[in-house]
Amino acid sequence: MKLSKSIEELEYSQALESDKEAMAWLETNGRKFGQFIGGEFLFQKNADQIKVTNPADSSILAAIEIADDKTVDLAVTAAAQSQKSWYKAGGHARAKVLYALARLIQKHARVISVLETLDNGKPIRESRDSDIPLAIRHFYYHAGWAQLQESELAGQEPVGVVAQIIPWNFPFLMLAWKIAPAIAMGNSIVLKPAESTPLTAMFFAQLCTEAGVPKGVVNIVNGAGNTGATLSAHPNVNKVAFTGSTAVGRAIRKSTAGQSKKLTLELGGKSAFVVFDDADLDSVVEGIVDAIWYNQGEVCCAGSRLLIQASVEEKLIGKIKKRMESLRFGTPLDKSIDVGSLVSDKQFEQVSHLVKSGLKSGGNLFQCEQPDSSKNYYPPSIITDVDSSHPLVQEEIFGPVLVIMSFRTQPEAIQLANNTRYGLSASVWSENINRAMHVAPALIAGVVWINCHNKFDAACGFGGVKESGFGREGGKEGLYEYLKPVQLKYKATNGASGNKASSTSNVQHSTSSEIDRTLKFYIGGKQVRPDGGNSIPALNFDGSISAWVGQGNRKDIRNAVEAARKANGWASKTAHLRAQVLYFFAENLTVRKDEFIKRLMETCGVKKPEATGEFNATVSRIFSYAAWADKFDGAAHDAPYRGITLALPEPIGIIGLVAPDHQPLLAAISLIAPAIAMGNRVVYIPGDQYQNIILELVSVMETSDIPGGVINIVTGDKNELSTHLAGHGEVESMWCWGDSELNKNIESISVENLKRTWCHENNDRDWLDMNAGEGTEFLRKATHVKNIWTPYGD
Ligand code: NDP
């Protein structure tokens, strides 16, 4: 036989990783786990249990107890009791503990990888070479941030007790993504692993004791969805960090509304993998293997929608099919397989069902092998002949299933890629760097990879937009998710209980100005009458009428949002231009100094020095954000690969601003200026008091080159208007200063399109205070960071 023929006919034999050590560890623990609370392993009396199985052969690995409400409470209490001393211990002390954790995980990497593969069904090659090394990197990286916290993150403090709920697709890696930044910054945590994959978390719990993590700083409770729900809604939890399905993300948003909790949601995706005709097609094929068959496609950012330029479609599909023939399936512990088992019978049924029912709407399925339910093996699959409205193109399948469509032009590619309710990630494939760098920013997603897919690193933030959630994990931006500005100690002394704008029915006041003045809304760059035709008096502090202002309704809000939508060109203006516009605005306002000071004295009842102070601070604040416009400009991360990752702050889109009552001029500018400096458009609803003040600014805006629709103002009943605004599907974020009822309302309504919210007590700060009234906190809220991965070299 010729050598070449022998080589062709060579077959792989099994190269099994030993499970001896992992099994011994399970035996040592009696194959039974309870909870890890306050540094102890606890078992409840007569607790309900969940069986943990190996999805590849249905064998039972262990049993875990389900934490009941009392046990969850115990865990939260343990976290709360340890948190302050953990923070007080200082950055260096925390850095040493995180470093010890990294070292210990490294030492036990092999057994953790095997446990992960047994529990989850993923190939050992992936847990060994990807998940666990990346988890280790997270602990090292965040040990560094703990060390630097005092100097680099001054003015911020930990949020307190953090509930962290993780899914089953990357059990140990997700644990590391969540726990490392949280404890590095001085928080204590309660983590709930997924019910089907809790084993490596219990292994980690044992390492915590060895690494010297103080008792109560890390707590782990096991259980199913109910345990997660109890934990996230617990009143003593200050922040919830969740990764999982969009449906559960929504449920958590709803159940935590009005509880003043910080929240990050890392949810599902249907990420585009865009291939231009000048791409290196052989690299593309390997990229597709990484994008959709890595981890059996059970990846939130899997490249599950392949968009191919029509001229290379046939050729590329041919190459993909050929490559599919050589992908190997086998027992997950076999070191030479590519695809393992889906995580559970339930997930196998879910993927099978979605594909089967989806194909009823058309499409051609190609697989090289048959699914095998006894091993939860679902083969790599592609589906062609579908259009962008097809259910399989829109729904997240969360399995190794790739849908394929084609496009002709670059704009069509961008449009198709963005045609999804999700916005987690995307990749662009082209050998033309100009083209790739043009397309990447146009893709609506939190992460974009150029000529690669599914690359991750602790230094590069990860997270989504739209229904993929909000917040980032990793990078400096990820740290702020576990921090808050040092607590404000402010009690409003003036203006907070002044007069409101009133409905006409029950008010009889004198008018202070000689001529009756009616101030209109400002929408799309024009002064506009209210849709309902009604006006209400805006009262001065003494009860006299300062002016009449429009009483807005749902239609007015819709018009304002529509105007903001049309003004989307503002985002693509240069930062230099936005700065110039803001400086010009300040300049024009300065000319009207005396008039505004008089107006503030008359309206708010403040003395001249106070009014002058507010006016001067307002001009200074506009200058500050004009200055920041071209300086809040991202980073280039040195992640461990041959390439550079650009972290670009992007505007959120349309932001709804619901203002506090006092310091009406300065507060308005403190909200509007950072938002528009970063390229957002805003719809502004003033506080209940002194609604005339913001409308007095309209004539200044009109003369300041601010494009129509960038700032829109609607007056009227603050609660009613902001409810309409929060419910609008095109508003992407709400900043709200209101009472607790209003804030709760805003947070619950925002669940519809999963908009970001930033809610505060009505008069929580003195806007004259530089630390409270301006700064990068506002700019961070006005942006989200997109990480663009750009490898180089051949
Ligand atoms: P879930 O979103 O249900 O689970 C994620 C985590 O949340 C698990 O720990 C789960 O607990 C917990 N959980 C479930 N319900 C609640 C609740 N009401 N309140 C708080 N926590 C809760 O994902 P599934 O495991 O059910 O998977 C379903 C689908 O979700 C997948 O098919 C996939 O489409 C998507 N998914 C997306 C992921 C991502 O990374 N974006 C990851 C996993 C799934 P428990 O598992 O114990 O029930």
Description:
The strands form 8 sheets. The chain has a 10-stranded mixed sheet, with helices on both faces. The chain has a 6-stranded mixed sheet with strand order 9-8-7-10-11-19, sandwiched between helices. Strands 30-29-28-31-32 form a 5-stranded parallel sheet, sandwiched between helices. It starts with a helix and ends with a strand. The longest helix is centred in the N-terminal third of the chain and has 29 residues, at 124-152. By secondary structure, it is α/β, with parallel strands linked by helices. Helix 4 crosses helix 8, helix 5 (109-120) crosses helix 6 and helix 20 (575-591) runs antiparallel to helix 22 (608-629). The radius of gyration is 28 Å and the shape is globular. Residues 494-498 and 503-508 have low confidence and may be disordered. The protein contains 29 helices and 33 strands. The relative contact order is 0.09.
